[in-house]
Amino acid sequence: MNWDSAARKGPQGDGRIDGFDGLEGLDGDGGALSTPAPEPGAPLPPFRPSLSLQRTRFAVELPDASTATVDVDHLSGRASLYRDDRHVRTSDMPVRFPLGSESIDIAASRYGMQRIHLISADGSERRLDPAQGTPEYWRAQLSRRHPGVGRALAACAVIVLTVNLMLLAPQLLELVTHLPLWADHFSPFVSPIDLPAWANTALTVTAALAGIDRALTFRHHRLLDAETDGIGS
User: Fold this and answer.
1) How far is residue 66 from each of residues 63, 84, 114, measured CA to CA in Å?
2) HEC per residue, the chain
3) CA distance 205 to 78
4) How many CB atoms neighbour CB 142 within 10 A?
5) pTM of the model
6) 142 φ, ψ to 5°?
7) Cα angle, residue 163 at apex, residues 159 and 168 outer, rounded to 5°
8) 84, 109, 218, 219: which one has the fewest Cβ atoms less than 10 Å from its Cβ?
9) pLDDT digits (tens, 9 = 90+) for 119-154
10) pLDDT tens readout for residues 68-118
């Protein structure tokens, strides 16, 4: 299955989960690049792997033998629900799409999906399957065919993010404590770590790659992924 490059734009607040906000602008101004949401009943467009850095797609078979498909547009921060390849609705993320007695819970970070689960009537949860051609599908295939490589990548991501926190946190603290609001009342903190610009850039890039790998494998830790999960975006 494939889909088009047009970003989705739907009615604001439609089906959104209370208590979650700030993720609808993951791209900073995605709405300006978005096209109107498809009309109800519009066919599911093809998915083009060339746009996999911008978009992704997941699907699940429902108890009534129909198929629910979710198109995710990271650029606009929106998700579109299709049932049996026909458009149902589009909404900003995070969102919970109702499907009778079931629902689909969706949330994203700057680097990928945090959550895309089918919630059954009894409260049980099942993650949707990534569609072929999506980054999540490629990453899952890598771990399936080469489990050692998959585990090594996951371990490296943890190491990179841990080192990144240890090295950048003191520098960030120094920056914050030199702001007038703090410095006018308290002594500024002086970081014992002073990395050159190229090293900080390298840390940022490797942390982004680590964040992407963890997002593709649906791994998330409140502290470890604090920098990469979009909290500060």
Assistant:
1) 7, 6, 25
2) CCECCCEEECCCCCCECCCCCCCCCCCCCHHHHEEECCCCCCECCCECHHHCCCEEEEEEECCCCCEEEEEEECCCCEEEEEECCEEEEEEECCEEEEECCEEEEEEECCCCEEEEEEECCCCCEEECEECCCCHHHHHHHHHHHCHHHHHHHHHHHHHHHHHHHHHHHHHHHHHHHCCHHHHCCCCCCCCCCCCCHHHHHHHHHHHHHHHHHHHHCCCCCCCCCCCCCCCCC
3) 25
4) 15
5) 0.68
6) -60, -45
7) 150
8) 84
9) 998 889 999 999 988 989 999 989 999 999 999 999
10) 999 999 888 899 999 999 999 999 999 999 998 899 999 987 778 889 999
**Which tokens belong to 17?**
């989960």
pLDDT band (50, 70, 90) for residue 26: very low
